[in-house]
C-alpha cells in the first residue's frame, strides 16, 4: 500500500492523526436488533527513504566485539564457479564413537569487558569468554546417526499436568539463533545483485561478476534450544546442530552421546547470498533433558569461537496462518476459529499466574466471517417458544448447557444458574435425556451441538421494525475528482451493482454532490430526469424536498440510472477546487437520520469550507522524537468525532473512500469510519487508467457483501473473568456493548480479558459472542507452561497490532515499537525462567512451539506502515489509512499483510505446470534469483519482479513488445499466448483466495531504482532496510534482552 504511481510528483504533506483513541466513547443510543443485508480497505507502503529509527527493534545497538555493519553484502561469484567452505578447525584426534565433552566455563563479570549499552539504555550481555579447548573430534569424516538415550530425571519436571486437558500432542520448540561469524567464510556461488543507478538505502552497490569478501561480523554469544513436554519431535524445518554446552558428568548424566550427521553446506541461488556456515552437533545427554527441551543447539565445537548457524534454519510462517490444533481437539463443539480466537486457550486460575503472562489474555472476534461452502452457520427459529436464554445472565442456549431433572431444567454454563422456572424449558422444547444426560433429540437441535448458530430474532428483540437497507452516496465533484477519472469509475460501478444490492424491492438510495456548494437530487419515480437543487448557504444547512431525496430503488430505477450516466459529464468542466465537506456531511445526516443505513463518502480534497474545515497542519520533522509527535496522528477537529457519534446513534455506518495526490488529513476524516463501524479505503495518486479495477472491485464488494444492520455485539464470559477493553472500529454504547450500525465479514474486533477473582474455582471458562451466537470453552490451567503450549500467535499479533497502533496516538512511534519488543522479551524471559535447569541452557534461546513465529511477526509489525520509521519513511495519510485498515482486519488477512507471500513462477510458466501456492519463499532478497520471475502478494497488491537474467522470451510474452521500456508505463494484461494466460490464471487464483481486496499489479525490474526499492525491497521484512534490524539481528537482540535478569 502506498502511492500506486511513484513517478507522479509528491505534494506537500500534512500530518494525519488516527482517531484510535484509547478511551472509548459513550453516547446515548437507541437499541435495536439485527437484520441482514452487505461491505473493503486499501493502503500501500510508503516511498523508500532513509529511516530515522533510533532504538530497538530497529537499531539494537552494537554487538559486543565489533560493530554491526549497516548492511552485509555477500560476495558475488561467477556462475558455475564452485566454492566450498573451509573445514572447521580440528581440536584433536577422534576418539571413541561416544564421548563426553567438558562443560565450557561460563564467563563472569570479572572475566569479560564491560558490556556495551544498547540504545534502550540497558546493558547488552557480553559474549562468554573463549573456553579452553577440550577434547573433541574433528568433523572431517562422516558422523554416525544421532542417538538419544537415558531416562528422564524427575527433578526437572515443571508443573503438574492439568487434569482438564488431554496430553499435549505438540511440543515446545526453539530455533537456532543467528549469530554473525567473527571470520568470514567462503562465499556461496550465486549471481550478484547489481544496484540500480541510484543505490537503495541499506544495500551495497555491487558490481556484477566481481569476487569480494563479506565484511567481518561480530561473534554471537549464544545457541538455541527447543523445549517441550513430550518426546523429541522432528523439526519442521532443517535445523543444523552444534555442540550444546553440557553439565559436568553425574551418575544420571553419564549416558551415551551420539553424533548427528553433518548437514551439507548449501549454496544459495539468491542474489544477495549471505555467508554460509557449516554446523555440527551432538545429541542431548539423556532422555529427560530431551523430554523437557527436545534439545537442538546451534554453535561451534567446544573450544572454537566460530559461529555455527545457517540463517535458513530460522522459523518462518511459509504455510501461512497455522491455527493451534490441540485446542480444537479438546472441545470439538466450540465455534470455528474463524469466528473466535483466544490469545491463549489456557485461562490462568489465579491473578498471580495471569501476571506472569506478558502477551495479553484476550480474544479476536470476527462474528460474520465467511464460511466455506457446506459449512454455513445453521439458522434456528424459536418461533413458538421464544429464544431459550438464561434468566440471569441472558446467555443463549448452547452445546455446553447441562439439562437436569429428566430434561425439565438446565444449568447455564456461563453463570451456573439452574434455570428451573416454567419458562426454562417450554413444552415445545422439552425432550427426555438419556443415562448420560444427553437429550435424545440432539440431532434435531443444531444449537445444542454446534458452536455457531444464527437465531431468528422475534419482534421483542427490536426497538423498531427492521429498516430497509439504505445506501447514500456523498460525492466530491471538485476539479481533482473530475480530472482523476474517479467520478466516471464510481458511477459505472454503482450502476453495475444496482441489481445486487441487498434488500430486494425495499432498498433505498440517494445522492448528494458537493464542491463549494451542496447539490441535492430529486429522483422521484415520476420524473424522467433527476432534478438538481443547489444550496449555497453553508452555515445553515437545510434539506429541500426531504421526501424525494431518498427513493425506492426498484421504483426509481430509470431515474437513478440516468443520474449515474450523466454525473461524469455534468461536472466535466467544473474548475472548482473547494470542498464544503462538513456542511455536506450534515446534510447527509439530516436526510438519513430517519432510516439509518450506510453512507459512502468519496473525498478528493481537503475540506476547505464551512464546518469541519481542516488546515494544512504540516508534517514538521522537528516534531518527530519529541513529546508532541503523536499529535500529528490525532484528529485535528472534534467536529468529525461528534458527527460520528450522531451517525452511530441513528444507526448510520460510514465508509470513507479517499482519493488524492495531496494531503487530505486521513487521520481526521477516518474518525467517521472508526466510530461508526465502517472502514477507510485509500487510493493515493488515483488515476482511472491505473486504479480502475481496484476501485471497481472494492466498491462492488462493499455494496454487495452480506451485511448485518443495526447490530450490537456483547461477549459474555464465565464467572471470575471479564473483558476490560475493546479495540477496533465501533462505538462503545456501555461498558461491554459494541454499537455497530453495519457489520460484515471483513471486520474483526479484539478484546482484552482480566480476572476478577483472586482464584478461579471452575475447571472451564466459557465464552459466548452475541452477534449471531458463537460459543467456545477453554480450560482453566494452573501451570504457566500450559498457557504457553495453548498460545495462538495469530491472535496475539492481532491484539498486539491494535494496542501498538493505539499507542501511536499518545506516544512516539519509537515507544510503540519498543512496547511490542518488550512484551515479546518479557514473555520469552518468563518462559525461560520456568525451567529448573536453566543454568545448563545459558547459551540457548528457548521458546514454545506455539510461539516460534512470534519474534518474526513482531519484527514485521514494527516494520509495518503504522509503526515504521519516522518522518521520512511513510507519508502521514498513508500511515493513518494503514492504521485504520489494520484495526479492522481479521487475523488471517493481518498475518498475510505482515508476512506476505513470495513465490517463483517462471518455471511454472515455461513448463506450463500447475501452480502450487504453497511453495512460498522467505522474505529476503536472498530468495530472489536473477534468472527468475516472482510474485509478491500481501493481500492488497501484487508486485511482479523480473530478474535481470530472466529469459527475454518470458518478458516479451507477458508485457509485449514494450518489455524493454520503463515498467512504470507498462500494465499487465492477458495476451494471446500460453504464458500470459497462465500468469493471469495464477493472479486470479490468488485474488479468489481472499476476495476482500483487489491486488493491483506493479511490474518491477531488478535494479530499477527507486521503483524496485519502493515496491518490493522495503517489504522484505527479514532484511536490514533503512537502518531497521534484519531477522537475524532482531533475534540476537531479543536473546540478549531475555538473558538480562533471566
UniProtKB/TrEMBL annotation:
Domain Sec23/Sec24 trunk span(s) in chain numbering: 466-702
Polar residues: compositionally biased ranges: 151-162
Start and end residues of each stretch annotated as Disordered: 1-249
CDD domains in UniProt: Sec24-like
GO biological process: COPII-coated vesicle cargo loading; intracellular protein transport
Annotated family: Belongs to the SEC23/SEC24 family. SEC24 subfamily.
UniProt protein name: Protein transport protein SEC24
Provenance organism: Salvia splendens (Scarlet sage)
